[in-house]
Design brief:
Helix content is about 70%, strand content about 0%. The protein is mainly α and about 150 residues long. The protein has a single domain, classed as Up-down Bundle (Four Helix Bundle (Hemerythrin (Met), subunit A)), CATH 1.20.120. The radius of gyration is 20 Å and the shape is elongated. About 10% of the residues have low confidence.
Length: about 150
């Protein structure tokens, strides 16, 4: 019996430790459908401008993988951002759009890495900054670690 009590105590401690280390929804900004939708629409517009700006950049002759190019990443961000904005406008909430946000986050993070390898002119960098600002705003509603990451 003593052994079972220890096992229960261990299981309880493990559960508490797991809950303590799991980011809580309380770490997110309070969901406001109208506000999140407006931010997503701004982000989609900024992503469109980012895509157009990257298309105007000189091609990198060393780019061996066009799928991994900055222009392709910008196109994907534009498509994903437009989709998220559309779904939010239709009334889909946090839970129904979380996977879309996570996909955008992944491409965003990949883009940051790619940008470190790519020479962008100042106007293109400024267009990115507008997208990055909208992305940071929307991240507060989806990512409990927003503002604490290495890509901020």
């Amino acid at each position: 019996m003593h052994r079972i009590s220890k096992l229960h105590a261990f299981a309880g401690a493990l559960a508490i430790a797991t809950l303590a280390s799991t980011p809580a929804a309380a770490d997110l900004a309070k969901w406001d459908q109208a506000k999140v939708t407006a931010i997503a629409q701004d982000m989609a517009k900024a992503a469109e401008a980012w895509w157009m700006a990257t298309r105007d950049q000189p091609a990198d002759p060393a780019e061996a993988n066009p799928e991994g190019s900055i222009v392709n990443k910008a196109r994907v961000l534009q498509e994903m951002s437009a989709s998220l904005a559309s779904h939010l406008k239709e009334g889909q909430d946090h839970d129904k759009t979380l996977d879309e946000y996570k996909s955008i986050k992944e491409v965003h993070d990949d883009t940051i890495v790619k940008m470190q390898e790519t020479m962008l002119d100042q106007p293109t960098q400024q267009v990115w900054n507008k997208f990055a600002d909208a992305y940071k705003q929307i991240s507060a509603f989806y990512d409990p670690n927003a503002g604490r990451g290495e890509f901020e």
